[in-house]
Amino acid sequence: MPVHNSEIASKFDHLADLLEIKDANEFRVRAYRNAANTIRDQSRSIASMVKEGDDLSELPDIGDDLAGKITTIVRTGKFPLLEEVAEDMDEAIVDATRIPGIGPKRAKALFDMLDLSSLDDLEDAAEEGEIADVSGFGEKTQARIKKELKQGDITEQRFHLDTAEDFAEPLIAYIREIDGVEKAEIAGSYRRRKETVGDLDILVAGQDGGAIIDAFVAYDEVDEVESKGKTRSTVTLRSGINVDLRVIPEESWGAAIHYFTGSKKHNVAGRRRAQDRGLKLNEYGLYEEKSRVGGATEDEVYDAIGLPWIDPVLREDRGEIEAAEEGDLPDLVTLDDIRGDLHSHTTASDGKHSLRQMAEAAMDRGYKYLAITDHSKSQTQAGGLSADDLERQIDDIAELNDGFNGFRLLAGCEVDILEDGDLDFPDSLLSKLDLVVASIHSKLDLDEEAQTDRIIRAMDSPEVNIIGHPTGRMLEKRRPYPLDMERLIEAAADRGCALELNANPNRLDLSDIHCRQAAELGVRIAISTDAHATGGLGNMRYGVDQARRGWLNRKDVLNTLSWHNLSRALKRS
Ligand code: DGT
Ligand code: CA
Ligand code: CA
Ligand code: ZN
After folding, report:
1. Assigned superfamily of 5-86
2. pTM here?
3. How far apart are the C-alpha atoms of 429 and 425, rounded to whole Å?
4. Residue 534 Cβ contacting ligand 1 at under 6 Å
5. Which pLDDT score, from 0 to 100, does residue 36 have?
6. Predicted confidence (pLDDT) per residue in 264-306, tens digit
7. Which CATH number applies to 91-151: 1.10.3720.10, 1.10.10.10, 1.20.120.420, 1.10.150.20?
C-alpha cells in the first residue's frame, strides 16, 4: 500500500516538533514545517509521483535534500532521521505538547525549569502553583494546564477527517473486493462527517463472516489485530487509527447501518420512538413481539418510526427528529452549490502559487470567482503585503481579469485585526478591494471580553466583509480563544458582516453549532479554504460537510451567490 501524503506530512511535522524541543535552528524547523504543508496540500499522491520518477524538488519548499527524504519514506515507510532524533527524546515532553496552547518550546522550557519527568510531575507542579512562577507562564496558563490534565483526554488521539479518509478510502475499496462481501460501508462519526473521528466503524453485509474477517486482517496496512471473531474484529492501522469491523446478514443492513452510524443520542431517540409504536429497534432489525418486521434498509427503519430518512450529518439529536416529524428538515447546501472561494493566498504573501496559477486552478474547479486575500503588513513572518504591494496587486488582478471569460479574481486582503480591534490597513485602502477578510493572528490570549470586543470593533469598519477563522481553533492542537460567541454572532448580524467557515481540515472553524446559531440570526457564512496552494482549494468539501452538520442551506452561504449577487451582498453600507 502506498504511503499517504498525510502520513509523510505528519512525519515532517513531528520531526519539526522534536527539533523544536531540542532547540534546533529555527530555519531548519521551519523548513520541515513548510515541507509538511506542501505535502499536505498536494492534490496528487506523492507516492505515485515517486513511482513515476517525478522530480519532487520542483514542488514548492522542497529541495534536493527533502526530496531524498520523502523518497526514502515512500520506498521504505521509514524516516531514519526522525527515528534518530526521537531516540533519546523525553516522551513526557512530547505528550505535554498536546496540551492546547503549549507548543514544543514551552513544553521544553517547563520541563527544564521545574526539572519534571512526567505528566504527573507537571500536574503536581500546576497544583502547587510552581508553573505560575516560571517566567513566560502565568496563573492563566497554570490553570489551563491543570484543567487539561484533569480532563485526561490529551493522550486520547482523535483523527482529522482528511487523515481518516486517507486510510479509510483504500481500506473500504479493499474490503469491497473480498469474496463474499455483498455490501460495505463506513459508519460512525466518519459517515456523519464529524471534524475528527475516534475510530472507524465498518459494516459489511456478507455470509461467511470468518472468511471475510481473515481477509480483512490480512490487509497490508493492518499493524495490530486486537480481536478477531466470526462476526467482528478490531485492528489498528499503521497510522494508529482503530478499525471496528462487523459482518452482518444482508437483511439486517438498514438496522445495522443506522445503529452504527449513530450518534448514540440519535439512536436512543429512535429506539424510544420505536417503543412508543410498540416496536423494538436494535442493530439486527425491527421487531414486533418476537417477529421481524423490517430493517433491511435505512428507509424502512425511519419509516417504521414515522419519519422521513434523515441525513447522517444531522444525526446528533439536536432537533433533527422533531424537524423530520414536522417535515421541516433543512435543504442542505451541497458542494455543487459553491460558486467560488473567498479566502486564498499567493506567493505575494505565504502562498505557494501565483495569481494566475490560483485563478486557473479555481477555473478548473468550475468556479466563477476566487478571492485573493494575502496577508497584511503586520504578518511579517507570513510575508504580509505593504500598502504599496496591495495596490500593485489590485492592478495585477484587474489586468488578469481582462483576459478571463466568465471568471474573475476578486481583489481582497486578509487584514490583521490588531490588539485593540484596529485594522492593519486604513479603510481608505480597504475600500479599493472587492472583499476584505479580517482575522486575528496575534494576542490569542486576551480574556473573553477583550477578545470579543476586539473582533466586534474590527467589524465596525464597514469595509470588513468576513471574519476569518473566527475562533482560532486548531483541531486537537489549539483550543478556540475565549470568545462570547453569542455576542459576536449578534454583532455580526447587526453589522451585516459574514463569518467564515474555514474549510481547512485542521481548523473547520466555525464549529457546526456556531454555524447554525449564526444562520438562525441571519448571518451569512463564507465557506472558504484559505488555500495556500492550488491543491488547498480542494478542501472545500470538508467545509461543505461541516456546513451541512450546521444545518446550513444554500441561501445561508455567501459563496453560493453568483458574482452579480455577491458583489451586492458585499456592500455593507
Ligand atoms: P468516534 O468514534 O468517537 O468518533 O464516534 P462514533 O460516533 O463513531 O462512536 P463509536 O465508534 O463509539 O460508535 C459507533 C456508533 O455505534 C455510534 O455512533 C452509535 C453506536 N453505538 C455505540 N455504542 C452505543 C451504545 O451504547 N448505544 C447506542 N444506542 N449506540 C451505540
Ligand atoms: Ca467511530
Ligand atoms: Ca467504534
Ligand atoms: Zn488566510
Report:
1. DNA polymerase beta, N-terminal domain-like (1.10.150.110)
2. 0.86
3. 7
4. no
5. 92
6. 999 999 999 999 999 999 999 999 998 999 899 999 999 999 9
7. 1.10.150.20
